[in-house]
Fold these 4 entries.
Entry 1:
Amino acid sequence: MQEILHTFRPDLFSGRHALVVGATSGIGLDIARGFAGLGARVTATGSSAGKIAGLDEEGISFERLDVRDADAVRAFCAAQTRVDVLINAAGVARGEEEWQEEVFLDTIDVNLNAQMRFSFALHDRLAETRGSIVNIASMLSFLADPGVPAYCASKTGVLGLTRACAHRWGREGIRVNAIAPGYHKTDMTKPIWSRPKGEAAISKRTALGRWGTTEDLVGAALYLCSPAAAYITGICLEVDGGFATGNPLE
C-alpha cells in the first residue's frame, strides 16, 4: 500500500471527506485505507456489526448500514454535512442461487440499486464540493458468467448508471466514473483461487500472469478522484491485469 500512496502527494485529500460504501473488508476497505493515507477523513459503511467491531483503522470511522434499506440510506446521507468522494463498493455474488427470483432481486438491490440510492441522495453534497463518484463495476459488466446471472446483470447496469449520472451532473462539476476489477483475491473469489487449478487457469489468461490483489484497485480510485482526472467522466477503467483481452481458448 505504501508504494501506491507514495505515487501521490501525501496531503492530496486533506480536508476532504470520502464516503466508502461497503468497506469493512476486501476492495472497499483497501480503498478506504488509501484515501485515509492521503489525508482524507473517511467514513466507511458495512452491514456486519461483527466486522465493524473488529476494525480499528486510523482516519476511518465505520458505521453499520444496510444498503438495501432505502429509508436508512436517505437518513444517513442527509446527516452528511460534506462529501467530496463517494465510492460505491458494496457488492455480493450468490452463485447458482441467483437463478431464484428472490435472490436475483436482492442481489440487484445490493449491487445496483444501492449505488443509485447513495448517488442520488448525496447529489447536493457532491455538487457543493464538485466531488467525484466511483462505482465498482466488474469484468462481468462486459463478459458473461451463467453461474451468476444477477451479478452479471447488476454489474452491467452499473455502467449504464455511471454514464447517465456523468452526463446528468457533469455541468455541476460532479464527475462519475467506474472501476471494473478482474480476478482479485477476495473472500468472494476464494472458491476459485483456493484451488490450484482455479488459480492457475486465471493466471494463464491474465496478461500479467497473476491474480490481482485488492491493493491493485486503490491507485485507480485515488487517480479518478484526483485533479489529474479533472477531464475524465463517464468511463469505466478496467483493472484486470489484461484478463478480459486474454484468449479463453488457450
Entry 2:
Amino acid sequence: MGTLSTGSRYLKKDTRVLQRSKVERFACIEKYSSCLPVSRLCRLYGVQRSGYYAWLNRAPSLREQMNQKILSRALELADQCRGVYGYRKLWQALLCEGFCCGKNRLCRLLKRVGYKAQLVVRKARYCLEGGLMPQPNLLDREFNPSQINRVWVSDITQVACREGWLYVSIVMDLHNREIVGFECSRQVTADIVLKSLQKGWKKAKPDLTHKLLFHSDQGSQYRSERVMSWLTKRGVTISMSRKGNCWDNACAESFFSLLKKECTRKLGLITCSEMAREIGLYISCFYNTIRSHRVLGYESPVGFRS
C-alpha cells in the first residue's frame, strides 16, 4: 500500500491511490487513521466519510466468518500439538474434522497471525572409536518395508542438561516409524544400545521365522562385541551406514530432530532425570500415539499399525 507521510503535498501528488478499489482505500484509511484525521484521509483518497464508516461498521461476510472459524480451530489444533505442526498437517487435521478449505488459504490465514512451526536443530556428531569391523549397508535407503518387525533402525543423540550431557538411544520400526525401544543414560556406551534393544525386543516380540534387519551407523557402540553378539544370537541381520553418510540412516536422524525441536528444546537446562522423564512422555504419550506423519497418510505410528 505504500507509506503515507503527514504532509498533504506528497499525498495530493500520489494519484495511484485513486486507482485502487474502494475497499482498498477504506483499508488504507483505517490503517492511517491513528496518524491523520479521518475526514482528511477521506478527501485524500476520494471517498465519502459516511461510506468509510459504513464499511468500517459492516457485518463480516460469510467468507470472513468462515476464515475466522478455520483460523480459530487451526490455532487450537496447533496448541494441542505444542506448536509442532505446520500448515500442511493442520490442513489435513481440519479436513478430517469436516472443514472445507484449501491448503493455501489456511497458509495465508496462519501467516496473517504470524504462526510458524518450530525450526529444526542440528544433530550432535560423534567420533568413531574402536570396535569390530563395520557391516555393509544392506538397507540401502529402503525406508518403507511392507510389514512390521522387518527393519529396525537405531541411533544415539545427546541432549544438554544441568549436570551435563544426557545420551538417548532409540530403536525404530521403519514400517510405521514407531519407537519400539529407547534408553537414556549419562554414559554413551554399548549398554545404552543393548538396553534399548532389549526393551524393543520385549515390546515388539519379533517373529523369528522372518528375518529382521537391524540398521545403524558405524559408531563404536554398535560395533561392540556385546551388541553384535546379542543380535547374531537372535538371527538378526546387521546393516550399517556408510562412513560419514547420515542419509543412510535418515529416519532415525529425522526423529531426533523432531525430539529436540518439539520436546527438549522447550525445556531448557533441567536435570538429567527430569529430561529422561520428559523424553519418555514425549515418545510414549505423543510421538507413538498421537503425532501424525505425512509418510503414514497423516496417521500416528500406533494408528497406522492397527
Entry 3:
Amino acid sequence: MSLDIELRAALAQRKALGRLRSRLNLASAQGVEVEIDGQPYLNFSSNDYLGLAQNSELREALAQAGGRWGLGSGASHLVCGHSSEHQQLEQELAAHVGRDRALLFSTGYMANIGAVQALLGRDDAVFEDKLNHASLLDGALLSRAKRQRYGYLNYEQLELRLGSSTAKRKLVLTDSVFSMDGDCADLRRLSALSADYGASLMVDDAHGLGLLGDGRGAALHFGLDQQQLPVYMATLGKALGSFGAFVAGSETLIEYLVQFARPYIYTTAMPPALAAASRVALKLMQEQGWRRAKVGANIAYFRRRARELDVPLSSSHSAIQPIVLGDDKKLMLVAEQLRQRAYLLGAIRPPTVPEGSARLRICLSAAHSKKQIDSLLQCLAELLESA
C-alpha cells in the first residue's frame, strides 16, 4: 500500500507538470500513413528514415526465415542461441561500416550499456556530451567510472576536462546525430582531441547509419578509420527498418565484449529469422541509394518551405527537424491541434529535453511526398500563428 501511495504521488506530480507520457496503439503497420483508434494519420514521428519497415521484400524475407528458423532463438549467444544468420549478419555489418568485426545486441540501449560498462571501471574516466542519449549516460553510470560531462557540442570544455584528467583509461562518448536536436557532432575534432589526450572515442550512430557516409555511417562520413574511432555502435531499427543493434571495431575489442559485456552475455539472442530479414534490409539499403537521396531532397525541401512560411527552424540538416516552442503547455496545445487534423508528430518535453526547450520533433522519410510535407507545414504555420 505505501509503495502505491508514493508512486501515485510521483505520477500526479508529473501529470500536474503536463509531462505524463502515454502510448499510442497503432492498428496498422509502421509507415508514413498509420491508423490509430480507427483514424488515419500522416506520420512524421517515425525513425523509419528509408521507408523500409513495411517493405514487401523484407516482409517476404521475414516470412521465409520464420518458416525455417521458427520464432525464438532459445538461448543467449554464448549458450546455443547464435545461429548462422546471426554470424553472417555480423560479418556483413562489419564490412559495411569498415570494421574488423561486429557484435549483435538485442537493442541499442543494451549495446551502449554493455560496451561502456565493459570498457570502464572505478579507476577510469568517461567524458560525455550533456545531450547524449540516455543509454550512453546510463552506461557511464553503471561503469562506476568518474563521469565528466561537457556542454552540448562544447569541445573547448571537453578539452579542459581531458587535459586535467589523470584517469587510467579515458573514454569519450557522443551521439553522431543527436536524436532530439538533429545536429551532428564533429567527430573528426572529437577523434583528434581523444588522440591528443590519450582517450578512446565511442560513437552512437543510431541516426547516422543508412544516411551518412553513403549509408555506411558517420565514421565513413568523417573519414575516420578503426584506429581513429575505435568503438562504433549503430542500430538496425531506424534506417534499416528492422530491430536490434551492433557494436563494431577491432577483433580484440569485439572478443573482449563477448567475454565482458553483461547485456550480451546474459540475454537471449534476437530471433534468427529477424537476423535473416535484417540481412536483406542491409542489402536493400546498399543497393537502393535513391532512398537516401530522397531523404536528402525532403530535408532540403522541408527547410526551404519552412523558411518561406516563417515556421521556426533549428540548425539541423538531418532527417530530424525540431520545432522548438519552449513552453510545455503551448507545445501540447499545438500537438493536440495537429492530432485533430490527422498529423502525428513527436511532442517532446522535459526531462527528455532540457527545461524550456519543449519541441515538436519532425522526422522525415524517403516515403514522404512533397505534397505531404507542404500540407504539414501549411498547417503548422497556421497553428503557430494563432498559438
Entry 4:
Amino acid sequence: MTISAPCPIIFDLDGTLIDSAPDIHATVNRTLQAYGYGGLSFAQVRSFIGHGAPHLIERVIGTLPNALDADMKASFLNDFLRAYDQAVDLTHLYPNVRGALQHLMDNGHPLAICTNKPVQPTQSILAHLGISDFFKPVIGGDSLTTKKPDPAPLRAVLATLSCDPANALYVGDSEVDAQTAQAAGVSFALYAHGYRKSSCAEIASRFGCALIFDDFTELTAFIDTKTPPITAP
C-alpha cells in the first residue's frame, strides 16, 4: 500500500468505531415484545448485524414461529427503526477510538463514514458520543438505493472527497466491509474485534488487507508510517 498525505480515512461504524450491539439487541427485543413475541439472545441478534436494518429484521422475523405477511413485516421494520433512531444509551466507542480520530484529523486526514446503518440513527449516535465533527461526509444504508457490499456507497464517499481510490483507506470489521473495499479498489484495514463471521485470516485471504489491527493506536501508527506528518509552515 502506497498513499500520500492527506490520505482520506473512511470508517465503517458498527463493530468498527462503536459497539452498538447492546442497543440493537435491546431495541429488537422491545419490538418483538410489542408484537407479543419473546426476546432473542444477544449472541443471536449480534450475528445478524452487518447488512443493514432490513436484513437484520428479516433475520429476526425468520426466527418467529409463524410467518408475517408483507404488511406486518413492513410495520415491524418501521417500528424497529422508529425506536432505534434514538437508541444510544448502551452504545460506546471502542478503546482509543477518540484519540485516534483526533490524531488523524490533526495530521490532515479527511475522515468519513460509510455504514449500512440508516443515516438518522448514525447521526444520533455520532452526536451522543461527541464525534460528529470528525466526519464529513456520512453515508448511511439509506443514503443510496444500494448498500454495502455494493461499492456504490464507498464510491459516493470518494466522489464527495474528490479522492482517488488508490489514495484512500477503508477501515471496517467484517467480510462485508472487506468485499466493499475490494470492489471499490480501496485499501482495507480490518479491526479484529467487531462483528465478522469468519476469521481475520480468512477475510485477508479472500479480500486482502493492508492491516489487521487489535487497537486503534496500531491503526494510527500504521497510517503515520505511510504518510508524512503535517508540519507547521
